[in-house]
Amino acid sequence: MSTYVYGITAATHPSLPENTSGVGDPPRQVRILKEGALAAVVSDAPEGLRPKRRELLAHQNVLSEIGADGCVLPMRFGSVAPDDQAVTGVLAERAEHYAERLKALDGRVEYNIKANHVEEAVLHHVMASNPEIRALAESNRQAGGGTYETKIQLGEMVAAAVKDKEAEDATALERALEPAADAVSVGPESTGWLANVSFLVKREVADEFLAAVERARGHMPHLEVRVNGPLPPYSFVEPGPAEPAGTAAGGADAEAG
Amino acid sequence: MTVVPAQQTGGGGGSSGLYDVLELVLDRGLVIDAFVRVSLVGIEILKIDVRVVVASVDTYLRFAEACNRLDLEAGPRKDPGLPDLVGEMTESGARGKSKGALSGAAETISDAFKQARDEGGSERETSSRPRARKAAPSRRKEEQE
Predict the structure, then answer these.
(1) pLDDT by residue (tens digit) across A182-191?
(2) Which of residues A2 and B87 earns the better pLDDT score?
(3) Quick check: B17 contacting A, CB < 8 Å?
(4) Where does the record place the region Disordered (chain B) (predicted)?
(5) A226 touches chain B (CB under 8 A)
(6) Looking at beta carbons, which residues of chain B come within 8 Å of A156?
(7) Which residues of A211-221 are buried (b: 16+ CB within 10 A; e: fewer)?
(8) Does B94 contact chain A (CB < 8 Å)?
(9) Interface pTM (ipTM) of the complex?
(10) Would you list the domain boundaries of chain B?
């Protein structure tokens, strides 16, 4: 029976979630494998496990539970070891490394911030600050919408201006929140959001971080800012928070091996 | 604009926060090379397919339409709505909220991504078709079906 691994934590963790529901249908029971000073949170791995919403949630929920009472190194979804021995083997082999990571991340949680433009507001901004665009929009409007070519021309100018504004706002948002965080990890770019940034925040100053988010929302009302956290430090398991802020991008891809 | 917001709008209010978290679960976290990862066919797409370039004819036309409709006198919308508290997921609240979202939307992430992959190839053809559109490009999915 192969073993599904949720995360690695200290054996002294005050409330290891034994008997919690894990991945699978029916949900497999969460078990703890201890090895020296470390503990792996695992369950049996269901046959044919697929990355469905329910399974991803189960993974996240188990980790949330551990993370609420102590530090955990969250595994990426879908990590399966051949058996329990293989898990404890890895813990023994890399004990020092994981202990160091747990120490470095102790008392810290991840907040993930994603931001989008409120389209109408950003279009207003772009029009207001760009006379050329304003003029073309006006002439199109007077021409009953304009020709296909002038529409494309206008759209192209607007798209470029919006893109510039996205980059500018992403930087501004990151700068506004950075001071309240220990480390920053920039997530993959996409057109689904203009900013996707994770911040490592000390638990005791989480309020300050959230206050900084509120201030940023106030200063940039044309942004829709989404906050998710506190979360286990998914984006900071490697490299460490010792990295200067802003350079930890892509840290998620680092491997333990 | 892409598969990401499509997932959000399709799943109702709570799922935007949910999606934002699942992206981390899938894409970040510790990887140990001695362990196998379950097959994520359709999921690896996330990184590639969401990078749909903003610069498409479709987008241009949409922006042009939006500018035409824009009421400049009204001024920019000052308040983009209350902070997205509903979407926030906390340790204590994760459980209850997740369950609600679960029962609300049956569609799996993998299905959504698979769909995105299937459509990836047709992206360009669709874009070159001139047509006025009020909706974001993400609606393309529904229109094609």
Answers:
(1) 999 998 776 6
(2) A2
(3) yes
(4) 73-145
(5) yes
(6) 55, 60
(7) ebbeebbeebe
(8) yes
(9) 0.80
(10) 3-74+101-135
Residues 6+ apart with CB under 8 A from A197: A112, A113, A170, A173, A174, A177, A184, A185, A186, A187
Average pLDDT, chain A: 89
Q: How far apart are CA A176 and CA A76, in angstroms?
A: 29
Choose from A151, A219, A236 for mutation: most chain B CBs within 10 A: A151
* pLDDT score of A199: 97
Chain A, 97 to 116: residues with Cβ < 8 Å from chain B are 110, 112, 114, 116
Listed in sequence order, the DSSP H helices in chain B are: 3-11, 15-27, 45-49, 57-69, 94-104, 109-120, 123-128, 140-144
Q: Over range A44-55, report the average pLDDT.
A: 89
Split at pLDDT 50, 70, 90, the class of A100 is: very high
Nearest residue in A to B84, CA atom: A226
Closest Cβ–Cβ partner in B50, B83, B90 for A214? B83
Specify whether the CB–CB gap between B35 and A5 falls below 8 A.
yes
| CB contacts, 8 Å: A66 with chain B | none
What is this structure's pTM? Answer: 0.71
Tell me the chain B residues in contact with residue A56 when contact means C-beta distances shorter than 8 Å. Answer: 22, 25-26, 109
DSSP of A97-139: HHHHHHHHHTTEEEEEEEEEE-HHHHHHHHHHT-HHHHHHHHH
Per-window interface: A 7-26 vs B, CB < 8 A:
7-8
H or E stretch at A54: helix A53-69
pLDDT at res. B56? 78
Query: What's the mean pLDDT when you consider all of chain B?
Result: 52
Q: From its phi and psi, is residue A231 left (phi > 0), alpha (psi between -120 and 50) or beta?
A: beta
Q: How confident is the model at residue B43 (pLDDT cuts 50, 70, 90)?
A: low
Query: How far from each other are the two terminal CA atoms of chain B, in whole angstroms?
Result: 17
Q: Which of A74, A55, A56 is nearest to A5 (CA)?
A: A74
Distance from CA of A243 to the nearest CA of B (A): 17
Range of weakest confidence among A175-189, A195-209, B72-86: B72-86
For B:100-139, CB contacts with A below 8 A are 102, 105, 107-110, 130
Neighbours of A37 (CB within 10 A): 14
